[in-house]
Amino acid sequence: MNSTISFSLRGLVVHLVALWIVPWQVFSAAAEEPTRTRQIGLPEAVRLAMGQSVDVQTARLRVERSSGDLALVSAERSLQIHAGSGLGATSGIPQSIQGAAPSVAQVTVRQPVIDLGRVSRAEGVRELIRSGELALDGAAEEAVYRVALLYLDFELSTREVERVAGDLQLYDEIEALTVARVAEGLEAPLALSRVRLDTARARERLATARAQSAMLEAELKGKLGMDQNVQLRPGPGGDDPGSALREFAGTMRSRPVEDHPEIAALGAEIRAARHRAAEARSARLPKMDLVGQYSLLARFNNYDDYFRRFQRHNWQAGLAVEIPVFTGRGTAERVAKERLRERELILRQEARKVAVEVDRMRSDALLKQAERLAGLARQELDFAREKVSVLLARLDEGGIAVEELERARLVESEAWGRLIRSRYDLAKARLGSVYTSGRIRSAFAD
Q: Across the strands, what pairs with 314?
């Protein structure tokens, strides 16, 4: 009896534990989604940035809103037909209520013919649409530029991690050689301490490079709208990451400054302000509409008692002309307001032209400097490689120790790292040169 009870209790405990462990394992497996690796190149990153940029999406919505405003202005010119009833009891002479005589049914028709204010308003909205489209181009240009810079930094960081990891291997080899030489009495213990310090510094540089690469990767995935579980790997790159931008950096600097999207957008806003001023002035001009009206009258409204003749069906058609006689100070104030807005936009446009020209000069100077530094880094690497070749020959002759050769290889690796950084600096300088011309998307067009 006791053994049976004991067995039942053990079974109950096992079942309860299983009911707790199995769901936890399932939840943990679902929470730990496997990391996927995705290789991405600069053109693909640019394409994704175009669809994910908040500034681009906001500018696109602004264009759609202006297009809706234009549709509303166009709708004001369309034919308008209204039907209703003004039926009511009448005592005494039939009187008009809100400008309409009592009627069983009434239909009014209005077709605007001449309204110069509406024409100016439509032209102003069209210029705002044009300005929005140019602002959209500018937002897209900036989004491409920012993401391209971020991608180049990320690609450089991955290459730097690989280079520093190779340096750490060389430091480990030097440390092993030094340990053997100290054991043989060929080196002082201080030499081993120095080598171990160099190795520790190399490990710290590797950890810092990996952390920097991880931060750049996370920022890039955020810009591209990717899941953080995706592990990015840069696409295969050559020795010159900015080679695709070379011809654009050389040709697009000659484009007129007026073609820059931001300056052209300000020009469209200036024209829109002029059209709004013309719309305000049009309040002093006459308007003309085609109008028509049909009314169905009834005798119980006393029409046959107070008029010589009663007619059930009545209609009117003609032109309604409105000629302003005195519009007050409001028109002049609206015109003055738009003129001030126009002057403000002109000042902003002129200031932006100067800023764009300065940016172009600065980008040209940075591009030339980056080209010089890349050439200098190339010479430093060639010298470091030549020194390694000489030391290899001396090592074969027994003239130097292996440690000296390994340190020369570290110097060569550092020179190689400077060359890589100079090439990416050159690529970013080319990118900036194309960006200041306002045509950076053309450099990545298929």
A: 295
